Amino acid sequence: xxxxxxxxxxxxxxxxxxxxxxxxxxxxxxQPQIEDMKVDLIYHGTSEPDMIKLNExxxxxxxxxxxxxxxxxxxxxxxxxxxxxxxxxxxxxxILTVYNNGQFISKEFQHTIFEKFTQVKDGNLAxxxxxxxxxxxxxxxxxxxxxxxxxxxxxxxxxxxxxxxxLYDEQNET
Length: 174
Prior knowledge:
This protein has helices spanning about 5, 20-35, 55-75, 105-110, 135-145, and strands at about 15-20, 40-45, 50, 80-90, 95-100, 150-155, 160-165. The chain is of the alpha+beta class. It has a single domain, classed as Heat Shock Protein 90. The strands form two sheets. It has a five-stranded mixed β-sheet with strand order 2-4-5-7-6. Strand 6 and strand 7 form a beta hairpin. The model is unreliable at about 120-130 (pLDDT under 50).
């Protein structure tokens, strides 16, 4: 996906995707890395309706970005990644949280974490890995689906990303 198209918001959201199915697909794709790192991965899905107005490929990219980062920054010993998907019936939205107990995002990077080419240094590496576009693309795709993304990060507790998506209702076209 070209960054220019994302910046211009040319990317369409004409398709719909299931959050639960897409999360499971992302986990399946990342299974070798999950097993290599020996992290405890906990996923609590939902059996409730979870369709959102976003192409499955774009939603998969969002999930791969978040989960790859969770793996990259997870604690090296006793690493935990917890993914929770639940519905907020009152707001007709789906809430997704992705937590890891590893390296926290320092205050100096927190205000720029969703900007293009922002890279947080992994304490275990000499230089950051990746392009610095993952969270930028994640934010753009979530917003194109009418959603919001935020995070909380603190030392000794890790980082939790929060995604809130309006649920797609075929009858009401929301």
